[in-house]
Amino acid sequence: MKIGLRILLGYFLIVGLAAWFLLNVFVAEVKPGVRSTLEDTLVDTAELLAGVVADRVRGGALEPSPKLDLMQDYARRDIEVDIGGVIKRRLDYRIYITDARGIVVYDSSGKDAGKDYSRWNDVYLTLQGKYGARSTRTVAGVDRSTVLYVAAPIRDGERIIGVLTVAKPLSSVQVFVDRSQRKIMQRGTVLLIVSLLIGLAFAWWLARALGQLMRYVSDVEAGRKAVLPSLGDNEIGKLGRALHAMRTRLEGKEYAEQLMHTLAHELKSPIAAIQGSAELLSEELPPAEFRHFLDNILSQNARQKQLIDKLLALVRVEQQQGLDGAEAVDIGALLRQVAADAAGRLQQRGLRLGMTLPPVAPLVRGDALLLRQAIGNLLDNAIDFAPHGGEIGAAVSASGDAVRIVITDAGPGIPHYAAGRLFERFYSLPRPDGGKSTGLGLPFVREVAALHGGAIDVANGERGGCRAELTLPLPLTL
Asked: Which residue ranges form the domains of the chain, and what is each CATH number?
């Protein structure tokens, strides 16, 4: 599982558990909280009314009173009140009064007068001087039918002479409970969705940055051209720059060591040849031999210069991780320039160059100078191996998302033992005319192809000779 997905799942698990816990606490506390608030209100109401009717309860009988009549009328009153968007159309209080034995002497609902309520907790506990309250379902098993009863003692001095109970159905406040729970769930859901979106954005950003860094590391590990992506000025960006700096130092040190060893090895032969010729020139020699050894010094010196120049060019492209200032390059025009560069050598060897170009030359995005040198190296190899008076082919074709430059010759081809070593530095095959090569041309072409996101393939042709194919990607836009 990718790290971005792990982080997202972990983040969402934490947020989800926290939200679930909070929502459950809120939802679980809404109903008890409303019930406690209702009970508190009933306590105040019961105590107030008990004090009001105390002087009317004497000797177990309830004396007539305008106050009691008002309480009776209260139950039959119609109202219409908007409470936070909830319309209240009836009054829900029920009030009943019992004497000191628990017998109902007054009931605002008018249905239970004369009944014995001494066993109900609200009356029973209050007559004992305790706090009396109960909740009773009017329909068995239906929680919404619960009615809350809260009692207060009616006193004559310190003596309890009766009980006044105020009752209110919980269904009257259930609508507020439901609305509160619904709002909590809705807003909790919104919170979860917003948290998920934030988590997705964060995980996407982190996975994208880590993915770019991992691709860079993979390219470095595989030895491919790799440019450090722009990762910003955060911890990941700092880590990427640190890895790039470490890579540059390690590769630079290793590369310099390899280069020095290789260069020293390759320069041994021309230096030894120059030294031997110079020692012989210090003696008296016939003019012909003198000229021979002098030419040898000059040719070996030219070979050293060519070797160093090509090696420096290879070093530059090997150390270059990306193209600076890439531009649109007309491959047809570029191939004609390369042909013009090689015109002298082609004429010297009596070779013909047959070019095949499409009606509309494709454009690639890259470095024109590097591409010109790379194609020139391929053409130089073809000239070296093509038989005198023969023909060299140079063709350009575009298909799909790539352009192909193919250079062919009718030479001896590639021996099987050399097929896997063509792109090794300083490895070269003997030329038919005895000439020598630096062995740096094809490695240079490979590096240039990699810089452009392309590839180079050199193999024997189907009809003999050698076939070199340079593939370059066509840009989506120029």
From this structure: 3-179 (3.30.450.20), 225-321 (1.10.287.130), 325-478 (3.30.565.10)
